[in-house]
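Entry type: protein chain
Record version: 2
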Amino acid sequence: MTWYKVPDLQPINQPFIKKVKLAGKGICLVGYDGGIYALGSTCPHAGGELSGGWCKDGKLICPLHRYSYDIHTGKGSPARMILWIFTLLKCGKTGCMWG
Protein backbone atom coordinates (compact mmCIF):
# COMPACT_ATOMS: atom_id res chain seq x y z
CA MET A 1 0.00 0.00 0.00
CA THR A 2 1.29 3.47 -0.87
CA TRP A 3 0.92 6.26 1.70
CA TYR A 4 0.46 9.94 0.84
CA LYS A 5 1.12 12.96 2.99
CA VAL A 6 -1.34 15.88 3.12
CA PRO A 7 0.90 18.59 4.62
CA ASP A 8 -1.61 21.41 5.10
CA LEU A 9 -4.15 19.32 7.02
CA GLN A 10 -3.97 19.40 10.80
CA PRO A 11 -6.16 17.50 13.27
CA ILE A 12 -8.84 19.94 14.41
CA ASN A 13 -12.12 19.65 16.22
CA GLN A 14 -14.07 21.85 13.78
CA PRO A 15 -16.18 20.23 11.03
CA PHE A 16 -14.87 20.73 7.48
CA ILE A 17 -15.01 19.36 3.93
CA LYS A 18 -11.98 19.82 1.68
CA LYS A 19 -10.94 18.43 -1.70
CA VAL A 20 -7.32 17.43 -2.27
CA LYS A 21 -5.52 15.59 -5.06
CA LEU A 22 -3.34 12.61 -4.17
CA ALA A 23 -1.64 10.54 -6.86
CA GLY A 24 -3.85 12.22 -9.47
CA LYS A 25 -7.10 11.28 -7.71
CA GLY A 26 -9.62 13.68 -6.20
CA ILE A 27 -10.14 12.92 -2.51
CA CYS A 28 -12.82 14.50 -0.33
CA LEU A 29 -11.61 14.97 3.25
CA VAL A 30 -14.33 15.30 5.87
CA GLY A 31 -13.71 16.48 9.41
CA TYR A 32 -16.63 15.25 11.48
CA ASP A 33 -17.21 14.47 15.15
CA GLY A 34 -13.50 14.66 16.03
CA GLY A 35 -12.34 12.39 13.18
CA ILE A 36 -11.00 12.91 9.67
CA TYR A 37 -12.36 10.72 6.86
CA ALA A 38 -11.24 10.41 3.24
CA LEU A 39 -13.64 9.39 0.47
CA GLY A 40 -13.80 9.60 -3.30
CA SER A 41 -14.65 13.17 -4.32
CA THR A 42 -17.12 12.41 -7.14
CA CYS A 43 -20.66 11.14 -6.63
CA PRO A 44 -21.06 7.90 -8.62
CA HIS A 45 -24.73 8.75 -9.28
CA ALA A 46 -24.41 11.91 -11.37
CA GLY A 47 -20.77 13.02 -11.06
CA GLY A 48 -21.43 15.75 -8.48
CA GLU A 49 -18.47 17.24 -6.63
CA LEU A 50 -18.91 15.98 -3.07
CA SER A 51 -16.67 18.65 -1.55
CA GLY A 52 -19.47 21.09 -2.48
CA GLY A 53 -21.90 19.14 -0.29
CA TRP A 54 -22.27 18.84 3.47
CA CYS A 55 -22.02 16.25 6.23
CA LYS A 56 -24.99 15.38 8.42
CA ASP A 57 -25.39 12.50 10.87
CA GLY A 58 -22.18 10.86 9.63
CA LYS A 59 -23.22 11.02 5.98
CA LEU A 60 -21.65 13.04 3.17
CA ILE A 61 -24.46 14.57 1.09
CA CYS A 62 -24.10 15.23 -2.65
CA PRO A 63 -25.14 18.79 -3.57
CA LEU A 64 -26.77 17.71 -6.88
CA HIS A 65 -29.40 15.14 -5.95
CA ARG A 66 -28.95 14.76 -2.18
CA TYR A 67 -27.62 11.20 -2.37
CA SER A 68 -25.78 10.39 0.85
CA TYR A 69 -22.73 8.28 1.67
CA ASP A 70 -21.69 6.94 5.07
CA ILE A 71 -18.29 8.48 5.88
CA HIS A 72 -17.19 5.32 7.73
CA THR A 73 -18.06 2.73 5.08
CA GLY A 74 -18.68 4.62 1.81
CA LYS A 75 -22.07 2.89 1.52
CA GLY A 76 -24.60 5.05 -0.25
CA SER A 77 -28.28 5.69 -0.05
CA PRO A 78 -29.68 4.30 -2.23
CA ALA A 79 -27.65 1.23 -1.28
CA ARG A 80 -26.42 0.40 -4.79
CA MET A 81 -24.03 3.37 -4.71
CA ILE A 82 -20.68 3.18 -2.92
CA LEU A 83 -17.69 5.51 -2.60
CA TRP A 84 -14.03 4.67 -2.30
CA ILE A 85 -12.77 5.17 1.23
CA PHE A 86 -9.15 5.66 2.26
CA THR A 87 -7.39 4.76 5.50
CA LEU A 88 -5.91 7.39 7.81
CA LEU A 89 -2.50 6.31 9.08
CA LYS A 90 -1.77 9.20 11.41
CA CYS A 91 -2.16 12.91 11.91
CA GLY A 92 0.37 15.15 13.58
CA LYS A 93 2.08 18.52 13.44
CA THR A 94 3.41 17.93 9.95
CA GLY A 95 0.14 16.77 8.38
CA CYS A 96 -1.84 13.58 7.79
CA MET A 97 -0.92 10.34 6.02
CA TRP A 98 -3.44 8.45 3.85
CA GLY A 99 -3.31 5.12 2.06
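Comment: The two ends are 6 Å apart (CA to CA).
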